Amino acid sequence: MKLTKLQREEIRMKYGGRCAYCGCQLGQRWHADHLIPIRRSERFVRDESKAYVLDKYTYKPLREKYLVNPEADCFENMVPACASCNILKNSLPLESFRATIAGFITSLNRDSTQYKIAKRYGLIQETKIEVKFYYETYGNNGITD
Ligand SMILES: [Zn+2]
Question: Does domain 5-38+73-137 bear CATH number 2.60.40?
Answer without folding.
Answer: no
